[in-house]
């Protein structure tokens, strides 16, 4: 993992952004990173009504809105981030966030997700889901940020690294280990082994399940050797999102680290269910 020197913090001025700011402040204090507070203005609504109001009127309204938004961004969280860069752009938020992060060599994007409804895992319509899919750098996110604890109560010490033993596993564990080494944290590796739920299989396939666990431990040992990790290994059974959530609760985890790519089908469910913020590598 390269050092976190530049953090991008996209905001929408909502209570979720207010809460996420506590974690951004904690991360910036821990890493001494430069923070850029970012807001994208979608001009589509103004262009859509141009035929009814007339181009000049719409342009006037839009310019007023643009100026007001820039002032609002300039004042937003000023006491907490007096030296932060502040950037406003026009366009669809997710694509602008990804493009800005790439062009400005951002090391970590930090934004909350609303985690709306049980069907969100099937969609890529949310800003967070699009950023998770397209960003070149790690993405920090978390649900229920409106209830975030005060900055002084936020820790970054207990890190649960979730691996699925796919191609992204090495990069995921390496990021977690490097972050822990740099900031005095401790990593626990967690891997979800499929549970046998159906009868009569749950009674007669115990040997098969034990073999799955044995193979998982073997692959994790190879992973630890490649990454030079001595992290504790925790195997959990069942649906990854539910099992990892329970492991995070039991271990009082401050942060989950998960991989994108091969883990993509589970990653958003893990984020939605996590009791603490998640970094997707």
Protein architecture, described:
With 281 residues, the chain is an alpha/beta fold. It has two domains: 1-150, Rossmann fold (3-Layer(aba) Sandwich), CATH 3.40.50.620; 155-281, HUPs (Rossmann fold, 3-Layer(aba) Sandwich). It has eleven helices and ten strands. A ten-stranded mixed sheet has the order 3-2-1-4-5-10-9-6-7-8, sandwiched between helices. Strand 9 (255-258), helix 11 and strand 10 (278-280) form a beta-alpha-beta unit. Helix 5 (93-103) packs parallel to helix 6 (127-134) and helix 10 packs across helix 11.
Short synopsis of the structure:
The protein is of the alpha/beta class and 281 residues long. The chain has two domains: 1-150, HUPs (Rossmann fold, 3-Layer(aba) Sandwich); 155-281, 3-Layer(aba) Sandwich (Rossmann fold), CATH 3.40.50.620. It is built from eleven helices and ten strands.
Principal-axis shape equals elongated
What number is the mean pLDDT?
85
Give the terminus-to-terminus CA distance. 10 Å
Radius of gyration: 21 Å
Briefly note the CATH topology name of the largest domain: Rossmann fold
From the helix content, strand content and strand pairing, which structural class follows?
A: alpha/beta
**Residue share in helix:** 40-55%
> Which band does the percent of strand residues land in?
15-25%
Q: How does the major sheet shape up?
A: 10 strands, mixed
State the CATH superfamily name of the largest domain.
HUPs
Number of strands: 10
Number of helices: 11
